[in-house]
């Protein structure tokens, strides 16, 4: 069974709270509280109950937040989207959250509604001089850097930046061959 991101979040919260629940009781036992079978069973049951409750609660909150923001998927009439995913468009000091889509002739970024600088940006592949990975904050190699022919540089944070670069290069090559 493949875990969806929401279920993965729920499970992560549940595991963390289960461990914290057991650790809390472990500290009590180290402090001198009597340790017996009943207290161990009680500790495990309370920890499981809290873990399930918190996992469902936080997972549900995250799911509601994601629905409120909208999936942001970009739809293009009569066109195939080659690659699409969540992205941040780095505008000044803000990483504007949204979705980035690669179509056969352009990149489209659409921000979700909860941003200060909400916007949609379209970059024609013909206007892109170069595309490469870059390190965000100088540490993490999850950035996508577009060098535009007009001298502007546009930066995005994406998952699997190398994958994006490969697909953008393929589309640029296919477009220049036409």
Report on this model:
Helices cover 43% and strands 31% of the residues. The model has no long low-confidence stretch (mean pLDDT 84). The protein is elongated. The chain has 2 domains: 5-69; 81-177, Pleckstrin-homology domain (PH domain)/Phosphotyrosine-binding domain (PTB) (PH-domain like, Roll). The longest helix is centred in the N-terminal third of the chain and has 33 residues, at 37-69. With 178 residues, it is of the alpha+beta class. Strand 2 and strand 3 (106-111) form a beta hairpin. It has helices at residues 5-30, 37-69, 161-177, and strands at 81-91, 94-103, 106-111, 120-124, 128-136, 140-148, 153-158.
Helix content: 40-55%
CATH class of the largest domain: Mainly Beta
Order of helices and strands: HHEEEEEEEH
- Beta-strand fraction estimate: 25-35%
What is the fourth-level CATH superfamily of the largest domain? Pleckstrin-homology domain (PH domain)/Phosphotyrosine-binding domain (PTB)
Strand segment tally: 7
Specify the overall morphology.
Answer: elongated
Largest sheet: 7 strands, antiparallel
* Poorly predicted sequence stretches spanning 5 or more consecutive residues: none
| Helical run tally | 3
- Rg over CA atoms, rounded to whole Å, is 23 Å
The structural class is alpha+beta
Average residue pLDDT: 84
Q: What is the topology, as strand order, of the major beta sheet?
A: 4-3-2-1-7-6-5
- Termini separation comes to 43 Å
